[in-house]
Structures are given as structure tokens and as C-alpha cells.
Design the sequence.
């Protein structure tokens, strides 16, 4: 079995009389995105601060590649620390330093790089985070979103192998939240670091996470993948997700997962047995699009797709929610496969004629003779009944994916 | 019954006294360790730039106010001493009295108090704000030793700036004494400078220099310590704790300057 990169064994932390972590056990694996979720004040940040050594446990031990960190010698400890970077919840930017100086500080103070090399490294991060226009400005002159990006750039500038993100999207609008999460996923893939995140952005955070940990009353109540979390039936999980998730998905305006579930149960459970339903799974290759055009464009396309699905299928009695990143699941109650096929066909035409041509302007993608892109929307349908398991319906719909609309710059409206 | 109550009040008093004494001793110990570690870290790499920057903040930016105070202190001394000496017909020694008072006593003390008010308070406030906004934790996570990066340069800069500003204070003060004594009240110009030359020894200058170094250590350590550990205050949190830390840093520094002045003077005499 793979040795965890970081492991907590019966870690207990108390502040005065209050126990924050109570014999917490968890494992974080290399090159994965691990997300810690839990109620506010449940000790998520405390947990993260233990990893970097800002706090030390009262009981129990923390292991790095199987070696207890408290047994490490000075040099070994320094080596461990060298690999970790931390992005604070409130950014913790130095307000008397400019954006450039903030990002350059760790390089200036902890490396022997020459001035020019530091400048190059910092500027490359600044360009990646789209901060070129604010290089000379001070943190207080920037918006909350920009400050977050500066903090992100600073945490990545030393090329760490483990990055700890303490609520990286707090205070951001839904689009910016998704952009930051996409950037984290993108850079994790590109730079190959291990990410540990604290976030309340459900469901978006689930889509980028390899593992999810639920911290509940000082203990790790759940440790597994998103798929496992979805199948994990426990009143505590339902209570937590219900409390944190709104009625609607912030980005697309579609139903939240919880609302989708209750609507599904209400609409279909109240009718006669074996009501016919059709499940339609719309998809866009989100990761591919994010890699090619950047996360902002990919999120713009997803947002537009969600709004159009809602607008078109809502009046027909259909209801939708995001299934995975870049996937939207729509349930059409009392609609057979043929009728659904016609509806999807009409929707595809509308998408082709109205939505996709406007996508270039919507996503602010700059194209030229050398840069062109393609966006394809797929749909998979399957007919079922209320007695069928929803997960099986989704699997079937996934297997039937076909391209229903496509946009290529320069060939607007051409469906292939 | 009455005797039991008396006993318990007596015990409570000693309990309080013991607790306070222990707290003061442990704090003093912590300050000594804090200074020693910070002082040793002055000699680590990448410090020159930070030290120069701090010399500018603590030294250069305090020079105007220090010189202004020096000028008026010298002028007042010139007036007061002329009045006293006139009674004995010894106005000729005005120069030596003004310069000795300034070099041995008022120069180091008033300079230290002025720097405390101007730079010491800002040291505490700045470090305190860095602490409460997690910027010190951020330094730690970036593997930058906060004590090396924030405290050591301030202590080093104080050790450079205090004696220099004291020297400026003394010079300007002597000039102030000259203005009132010679220009206003008619003391002979030659006698004023001749007396300074004949009565001021290197021992006097060395004494003032030692005092200014002692004050530099005390003021910078106290002000940095108060800011660095502002989050450990139990009487307040956040901005309030920074404000209280700044106040106590200034008060504690000023009191320590005066007490240590007496101690150092008695050793130097």
C-alpha cells in the first residue's frame, strides 16, 4: 500500500479547555488534491497549521513519508519545511510592500538567486496570474480577488512540492471562485505539487479534489473520494452538506445537489409507480478547454451552458444540476426517449444558433490567425423509470454521449 | 474566626506578590533571551539591506526632531546656567557646564526618549500589526526567520543610530548654549569654547557613548518585544492589543531609560 505523504496519527490539540482536534487520523497522498471540509470553527485551519509547523500537537504524531516530524533533526526539519508553502485565509500579504516585492520576498530571503533570475521568476508568476497591470501597486489598492491571486502567486513562486491553501476562494464571486479553483487544479497538474485545501465551495471543490476529508467534532468523520462521499449515507454528511450548500449552484444558477435530490424524490416519488423519465447528461470538455483557453474562458462557457439548459428545460418541467465539472445532469420527468431526443435536438439548434456564436465575446477569448479553438457540447440520453437507480441512469447516459453542437472560430454555426 | 480571615488575607497578599514577582522575572528572562537571539542573528547573511533601511527609519528620520530638541535644550541650559553662574560671577565657565551636562547626561537620555517616542512606538505598532494580521506567521511559512528579518535589523540600526543621534544632539545643544550665552547674553565667545576644550575629557564622551548604547539595546528590545508578542496579551485582542502594547512599550522604555541612566552613571563615576 502507498505510504501517505503526510499522516496524522491520533493528533490532539487543545486551546485552554477546548479540544479542537481529538485523536484525528488522516492521510494525505502525494500529487493529489486533498480537500478538508467541515463547519466553521471546527479546526480546519488548526489542522493545516500543524502540517507546516505553526502549531504542534499536544498528543499524537504527524508523519512525513512515514517519519515523525517531531523526531526530525534541524536540517531534516528545514528540508521538510522547504517543500511546503502556505496560502493564508486572509492572504497575509505585506501591506507595506508592492505586489512584486510581496511575490519576490521568499526568493530574495531564502535563495541565492541573482536579481535578474528573481525578476524573471516573479514576472512569470505575475503573468500566469494576470497581475501584470498591478505589479507596482500595494495590496490595499487591489480588489479582494486580486489580493488572492497575489497570495497564490507568492505561495507558488518557490516551486513547492506541497501547497496548503486555507480557504483560497473566500470573498470571491462565483466566477472568480471557480477560476481560482481551476488555477489550483491546473497548476497542480502542470507543476505536480500536492495540494491540501480548506474550502466551503461545494460542489465546485469536489470536482477538483482527489480526496475529501470531513472534519467533524475534532475527528475525521469521512476520508475518501467524491464518488465515495456521494454514496456515503450518513445523517451528519447530509446535515453538513445541506447547511453549506445553497438552494442553487452559484455559478450556473442550476439546482444545488441537495435541492436536485429532494426535487427528484418529490417529483417522482409522489406520482404513480414506474413513471417514465429521461436523464440527459450534457458535457463540455472542461479540462481541455481550460488548458487551451484558460480557466476564465472555460468557466464562461460552463456558466453559459448552465444558464441555457435552465432556461430551455425549466419550463418543460425538467430540472438540472451540475454532475461533475463541465457536466450537467437534466431529468425530464414523464418524457420518453423520443420526445427527449426532439427536445435535445431543438436545444442543440438553439445553442448552435444563439449561444455559441456569442461565446467568443462572452469569454473574452482573443483569437487570431494563429490561435483558433473549438468548443463542443455533448449530450447522452437514457430512458428509465423511478424504480431505476439514478447512478445507473447516469452511467448509461454517459455511455451514449454524442456531440450535439460545436463552435469553431471562423466557422460559426457549423455543426459537424 | 477573625484570625483565620487575617491569615487568609495574608496568604492572598503573598500569593499575589509571589505571582507578580514570578511573572516579572519570567518576562525579564524572556526579554534577555529575545535580545540575545536577535543580536546573534544580526550577523546572518542578507541583513545589510534591512539594517540600512532601518537606520534610515530609526536614525535619519528621527534626526530633525532630535536636533530641534537638542537646540532648545542647549538654549534653555544656556539661559538657566548663565543665571546661576552670574550670581557667583563665573559666567566664563558657561561653555563647560553646558557641554558637560549635555554630553554626560541630557544628550543620551533626551535622545533616547525622543527616539522612543518617534521610532520606538512605530516599531511596536508595526511589528504588532504584522503579528495580528498573520504576516509574521506568513514569514515563518516562507521559511524566513521572523526574528532575523524583523527584529535583528532594528536592534542593529538602533545600535548605530542612538550614538550618532546623541552626538548630533550634543553638538546642536552646545550651539544652542552658544546662541543664548554668547549671542544673547554677551559671554565671551573665546571663553565659551576654551572652557569646553579644557573641561570636556574623552571619559565624558565615552560615558555618553556607553549610555547611548545601553539605551539603544533597551529601547529596541522592549519595543520589538512588546510588538512581537502582542498576541499573547490577555487584557485585549486585535487592534486594541497593538495600541496597548505601543503605550506600554513607550512607558516601559522611558522608565527603563531613567533607571538604567542612574545605574550606568553610578558605575561610570
Sequence:
Amino acid at each position: 500500500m502507498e505510504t501517505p505523504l503526510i499522516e496524522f496519527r491520533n493528533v490532539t490539540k487543545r486551546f485552554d479547555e477546548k479540544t479542537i482536534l481529538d485523536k484525528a487520523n488522516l492521510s494525505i497522498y502525494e500529487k493529489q488534491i486533498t480537500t478538508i471540509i467541515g463547519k466553521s470553527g471546527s479546526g480546519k485551519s488548526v489542522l493545516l497549521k500543524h502540517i507546516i509547523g505553526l502549531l504542534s500537537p499536544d498528543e499524537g504524531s504527524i508523519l512525513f513519508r512515514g517519519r515523525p516530524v517531531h523526531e526530525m533533526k534541524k536540517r531534516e526539519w528545514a528540508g521538510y519545511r522547504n517543500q511546503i508553502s502556505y496560502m493564508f485565509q486572509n492572504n497575509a500579504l505585506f501591506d507595506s510592500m508592492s505586489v512584486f516585492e510581496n511575490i519576490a520576498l521568499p526568493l530574495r530571503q531564502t535563495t541565492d538567486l541573482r536579481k535578474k533570475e528573481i525578476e524573471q521568476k516573479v514576472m512569470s508568476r505575475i503573468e500566469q496570474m494576470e497581475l501584470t497591470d498591478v505589479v507596482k501597486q500595494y495590496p490595499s489598492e487591489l480588489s479582494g480577488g486580486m489580493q488572492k491571486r497575489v497570495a497564490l502567486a507568492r505561495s507558488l513562486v518557490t516551486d513547492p512540492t506541497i501547497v496548503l491553501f486555507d480557504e483560497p476562494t473566500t470573498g470571491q464571486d462565483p466566477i472568480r471562485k471557480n477560476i481560482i479553483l481551476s488555477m489550483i487544479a491546473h497548476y497542480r497538474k502542470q507543476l505536480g505539487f500536492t495540494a491540501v485545501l480548506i474550502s466551503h465551495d461545494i460542489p465546485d471543490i469536489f470536482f477538483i479534489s482527489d480526496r475529501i476529508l470531513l472534519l467533524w467534532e475534532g475527528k475525521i468523520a469521512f476520508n475518501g473520494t467524491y464518488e465515495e462521499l456521494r454514496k456515503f449515507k450518513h445523517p451528519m454528511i447530509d446535515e453538513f452538506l445541506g447547511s453549506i450548500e445553497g438552494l442553487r449552484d452559484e455559478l450556473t444558477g442550476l439546482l444545488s445537489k441537495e435541492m436536485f435530490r429532494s426535487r427528484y424524490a418529490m417529483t417522482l416519488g409522489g406520482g404513480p409507480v414506474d413513471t417514465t423519465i429521461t436523464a440527459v447528461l450534457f458535457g463540455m470538455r472542461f479540462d481541455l478547454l481550460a488548458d487551451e483557453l484558460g480557466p476564465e474562458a472555460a468557466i464562461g462557457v460552463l456558466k453559459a451552458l448552465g444558464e441555457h439548459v435552465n432556461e430551455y428545460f425549466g419550463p418543460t418541467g425538467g430540472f438540472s444540476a451540475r454532475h461533475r465539472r463541465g457536466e450537467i445532469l437534466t431529468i425530464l420527468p414523464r418524457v420518453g426517449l423520443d420526445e427527449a431526443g426532439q427536445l435535445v435536438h431543438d436545444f442543440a439548434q438553439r445553442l448552435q444558433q444563439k449561444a455559441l456564436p456569442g461565446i467568443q465575446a462572452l469569454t473574452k477569448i482573443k483569437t487570431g490567425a494563429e490561435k483558433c479553438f473549438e468548443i463542443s457540447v455533448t449530450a447522452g440520453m437514457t430512458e428509465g423509470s423511478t424504480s431505476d437507480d439514478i447512478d445507473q441512469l447516469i452511467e448509461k447516459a454517459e455511455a451514449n454521449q454524442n456531440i450535439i453542437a460545436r463552435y469553431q472560430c471562423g466557422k460559426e454555426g457549423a455543426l459537424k | 474566626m477573625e484570625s483565620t480571615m487575617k491569615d487568609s488575607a495574608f496568604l492572598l497578599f503573598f500569593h499575589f506578590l509571589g505571582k507578580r514577582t514570578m511573572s516579572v522575572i519570567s518576562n525579564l528572562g524572556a526579554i534577555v533571551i529575545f535580545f540575545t537571539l536577535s543580536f546573534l542573528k544580526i550577523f546572518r547573511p542578507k541583513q545589510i539591506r534591512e539594517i540600512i533601511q532601518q537606520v534610515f527609519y530609526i536614525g535619519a528620520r528621527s534626526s530633525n526632531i532630535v536636533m530641534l530638541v537638542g537646540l532648545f535644550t542647549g538654549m534653555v541650559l544656556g539661559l538657566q546656567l548663565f543665571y546661576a553662574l552670574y550670581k557667583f560671577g563665573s559666567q566664563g565657565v558657561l561653555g563647560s557646564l553646558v557641554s558637560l551636562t549635555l554630553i554626560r547626561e541630557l544628550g543620551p537620555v533626551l535622545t533616547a526618549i525622543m527616539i522612543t517616542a518617534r521610532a520606538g512606538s512605530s516599531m511596536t505598532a508595526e511589528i504588532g500589526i504584522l503579528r495580528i494580521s498573520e504576516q509574521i506567521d506568513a514569514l515563518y511559512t516562507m521559511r524566513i526567520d521572523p526574528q532575523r528579518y524583523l527584529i535583528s535589523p532594528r536592534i542593529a540600526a538602533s545600535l548605530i543610530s542612538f550614538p550618532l543621534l546623541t552626538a548630533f544632539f550634543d553638538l546642536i545643544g552646545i550651539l544652542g548654549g552658544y546662541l543664548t550665552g554668547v549671542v544673547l547674553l554677551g559671554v565671551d565667545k573665546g571663553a565659551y569654547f576654551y572652557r569646553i576644550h579644557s573641561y570636556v575629557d574623552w571619559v565624558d564622551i565615552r560615558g555618553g557613548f556607553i549610555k547611548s548604547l545601553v539605551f539603544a539595546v533597551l529601547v529596541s528590545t522592549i519595543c520589538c518585544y512588546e510588538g512581537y508578542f502582542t498576541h499573547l496579551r490577555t487584557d485585549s485582542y486585535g487592534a486594541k492589543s497593538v495600541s496597548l502594547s505601543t503605550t506600554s512599550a513607550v512607558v516601559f522604555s522611558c522608565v527603563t531609560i531613567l533607571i538604567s541612566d542612574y545605574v550606568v552613571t553610578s558605575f561610570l563615576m
